[in-house]
Amino acid sequence: MKKILANIKKAVKNAKTALIVSHIDPDGDSIGSMLAMGNILTQFNLTTFYYSEDGLPKVYRFLPGADKVVNKLPPFQRYDLLFTMDASDIKRLGSKLSVKEIAKIIINIDHHPDNTKYGNFNYIEKCSSTAELVFKIAKHWDIKINRETAENLYIALITDTGNFRYENTSAKTFTMAAELLKTGIDTHEISTRIYDTRSIASIRIQAAALVNVEISPDRKAAWTVVTEAMMQKHQARGEDLMGLVDQIRSIEGIEVAMLFREEKSKVKVNFRSKDKVNVSALAKRFGGGGHIRAAGAVMLGSIDNVKNDIVAEVLKYLKASKYLA
């Protein structure tokens, strides 16, 4: 770890500009880590830019620095450094970014164990979140974490650990959280904004989806579908579905939960598991990936065909116990 962080620091000291990028459909960890990393880089007098192809969900727009994130870049712009945050594969950065052409050096920071190591420098370590790696970078570089950086890191930490409920939570996670709290961040306000603030569209679309939850005959898998027509009817956006698949997972006895969301000619699939199933391995069969207990994939085709194919595969492998973890 020390060698790779020393090499990254050297690259930072020799650079003037840096572009920091989140993955598509950005979550709290990707966004918080991106903004925190940018705050750290400014202490080296770098001019920093932030990019997210899908923009930022409304729930995260209160974060310090969120107003600087863009979803379009100037044509032919080239940067000294490209930092990719929480993206296990180049494809996760989106289709509009020419990764190999936009920067001289790619610095890949991620906590997913299946990361493809596509950067010139790859700081990959299995831990609770990419935020934990950014925290380690600040410590290793002797950078004092200010309140703005701490707020972004805390958001990233709680969202990727399910507010410290998931099994990726460790003693190191709480130690990091304790240090962040010392900067004076308001954890009550943060938690209220993330977990207790919902739009009426979110309530209605999730209610409609939960009414239609289907459960497998063995009661080990459950899933629901959200069509474009449903989204239009309730004037909902993608971010209004946040937490829906987790509610399905909470059903007693369920080991695998799935959410199928129709989006034009493709279907976005979210997988969740409780204690036994490696849904990351399952998602890889469909061109996706993620964590052992939370993963996703995007497939072409009609929502009915995609749902039927994936449900059949899940039930088959639940029976065979191939993906137990």
UniProtKB/TrEMBL annotation:
GO molecular function terms listed in the Swiss-Prot or TrEMBL record: nucleic acid binding
Coiled-coil stretches: none
Domain DHHA1: 230-319
DDH domain: residues covered: 19-156
A Pfam short name: DHH
Top-level taxonomic group: Bacteria
PANTHER family: BIFUNCTIONAL OLIGORIBONUCLEASE AND PAP PHOSPHATASE NRNA
Protein name per UniProt: DHHA1 domain-containing protein
Organism: candidate division WOR-1 bacterium RIFCSPLOWO2_12_FULL_45_9
